[in-house]
Every structure is written in C-alpha cells, then in structure tokens.
Amino acid sequence: MHQIFQSFIDGLANSTDAASLRATIVAAATRLDVPCFAYLALPSRLRGAPQLISTYPPAWTAHYLKQHYERFDPVIVAALRATEPFEWGREVALNGSPTQRQLFEEAAAFGIRCGFTVPIHDSRGPVAAVTFAADVPHAAFRHAIEKQGPTLQLMAMYFHAHARRKLASERVVDGVALSPREYECLAWAARGKSAWEIGQIIGVSRRTAAFHLENAKAKLGVRSVCQAVARFAASQPLGC
C-alpha cells in the first residue's frame, strides 16, 4: 500500500494537465480495484460550469454536463451536506424527485450503479467530490471500500489539492479542461476563422489547427466545430 500511495503522490507532483492527473489516479485506483472514478469540482460562481475529470463513458459525462445534472445529482447533493465519505447505491434516488430518479436510471445504463464518494470541503464550504464507482458491489470493490476507505479519502484530498492548483490556469470550456492550443484554436474558430486562417494566425499548419479543433470537439463530446464554438461561447463570462 505504501508503494501505491507513494507512486500516486509522485505522479501528482509530475502531472501538468487534466490528462496526466487522470492517468495518475487511474493507475493507483486500478491497483486498489476501484478503477472507475470521477472528480467533480463545483463552480465558484453562480451558474458557472463544474470541472470534471473521470473514467466514466464520454457519452455520459458530456450528457451530464450538458444537462447540468450536478445541480440535482443525489450523490452530489449528499456530498454538499456531508463532510465524511459515504457509500451509496440505488437507494440514493428512491426517495428523490422524478428527475433524480431519471438521472440515476440513465447513469445505471452506463454502468454507474453504486459507489463511494469523498466530499471535499474548505473554508468556503463544499467545493468538490471524488467518487469511486462500480456497476455492482462485487467482492473486490467491497473489499477496497471496507479496507482502503481512509486511503481513498486521503487520495481524494491530495488529488483535489493538485487539481485545483494545476488546473487553475488551464482553459476550461463548460467544465471540460482543454489544452492551451485547443482553447486557442477554438477561440479563433469562435471568431469565424477557418482552420487554415487559424494556422496562419498562430503559426502552425492548417492540419495541425484542425487536429487541435478535433481534439476539442472530442473532449466536449460534440460532433461539429459549430457545436464546440457554441459550448465555448456559452462558457464565457459576461462582458468577455
């Protein structure tokens, strides 16, 4: 266990972006038999977009963010109230609203039916949540939660501390962290520039500019540059 945790800490220290942070926690969580995870950082401003780093299916996370499910997700609602880690399953939605029950049924269709959530609070109150999830509470998952709960809580706290610091300067669109180049290309696309024009402006080839736009589309879970631009525009603060 010491070796796993030390590798995790070293990995966080060497991480530079959302992708490397994700790879670091995935490596540790996989060795602990809880490879399915999600880190959701709540927005600091009213109606802002959350930040999400996870191994959940992209189709689900894109839908989740688009529908602003974090505002009434029963697990997140519970994390806002709790300060200690908690386990959850189907029961979290049984007494909820019809919308919450629908959300849980949709999540279940993507293999997210139970989990262990660590609320992250600071002086401002609840700021994030880290969830280790599973399709069913199989033996390996139950063992990890029962035996490694304190370790998972500590991992979640370390992960949040590094993510908050290292993603603060990243470009985020609708809760999704983009690389500087992806964000830059999308910003120029939002101004009506083609891939060729963007390449000329930032000093890369048209093919490279198109590559960054494709990556941005994939991360945002959309099919066209127009849809990505719409997400970009909606994420910008008023007055920008």
**Second CATH tier, the architecture of the largest domain:** 2-Layer Sandwich
Main sheet makeup: 5 strands, antiparallel
Number of domains: 2
Euclidean distance between termini CA atoms: 48 Å
What level of helicity do the residues show? 55-70%
Shape: globular
Strand content: 15-25%
CATH topology of the largest domain: Beta-Lactamase
What is the H/E order? HHEEHHEHHEEHEEHHHH
DSSP summary, beta strand count: 7
Question: Structural class, from secondary structure content?
Answer: alpha+beta
Strand arrangement, major sheet = 2-1-5-4-3
Rg result: 19 Å
Please report the number of helical segments.
11
Mean pLDDT, all residues:
88
What would CATH call the homologous superfamily of the largest domain? Transcription factor LuxR-like, autoinducer-binding domain
Look at the structure and give the CATH class of the largest domain.
Alpha Beta
Low-confidence stretches: none
Q: Which features would summarize this protein structure in a list?
A:
alpha+beta; 7 strands; Arc Repressor Mutant, subunit A; Beta-Lactamase; 240 residues
